[in-house]
Amino acid sequence: MADVFDNSPPQFRLGQLPEWSYLLREFYQLYRYSSAGGSSCIRSHQKEVRHRLSRLLNHDPSINLVQALEKPVCAHLSRALDLGLSQPTAPITRAIERIRDQLYWEYGYCKVPPGLSNKYAFSQFLGPKGPILAEDIILGVVLFAPGTTYPTHSHQSITESYICLSGSISENDVGVYAPGSLILNPPEHPHRITSDDREPCLLAYAWVGTPEALVGQEMTFSRPKRRKP
């Protein structure tokens, strides 16, 4: 991932940009009220996300805005937001809609697999590389076009969660996750995502790890094992 947020001094404090502050408050509420489904592991992760986010908000972090950038999949963003506004996740969807013209969308890979560049992108809201500066947590959204297959990958030393805001996805071909659903991926857990054939999918995500793990994370896809002859 290019260090697009690193080379300029802080432009603002978060408190000077209310729409961004409201967005993070909605993230907090999302991880407070989304169901853990009876899982102690998911409940612990939700609590950790809230703890790290609350600690950050108490210090009015710096925010470095850069010029907005779209990817081809953003042609589906309006539809994804419209769908999300009719779901229980509407408050955070509406908060995202308010800042959509300020978002920097990216791939996170030096080499994107053929066909994926038109079907996927993510926008990071908070993390070591900004725009809201944080050391030990990353928050953002990822957008999938209809009929997307996001290849198998994993995250070293990072716990990841997705909360579906609109559309629906499947992970590792097990179950279907609709708006409000939370998926937890422990460190080194291989996972493959597919999206609905007819509608785009918008997911909120959180990465939790040490500052070293988050700032040094390299996004790579897992190579399928070759069968022995």
Number of domains: 1
How does the overall form come out from the CA principal axes?
globular
Q: What is the CATH class name?
A: Mainly Beta
Task: Indicate the CATH architecture.
Answer: Sandwich
Determine the structural class based on helices, strands and strand pairing. alpha+beta
H and E order: EHHEHHEEEEEEEEEEEH
Relative strand content: 25-35%
Radius of gyration: 17 Å
**The CATH H-level homologous superfamily:** Jelly Rolls
- Determine the N-to-C terminus distance: 37 Å
Give the helix proportion (percent range): 10-25%
Mean pLDDT over the full residue set: 90
**Which consecutive residue ranges, at least 5 long each, have pLDDT under 50?**
1-6, 225-229
Number of strands: 13
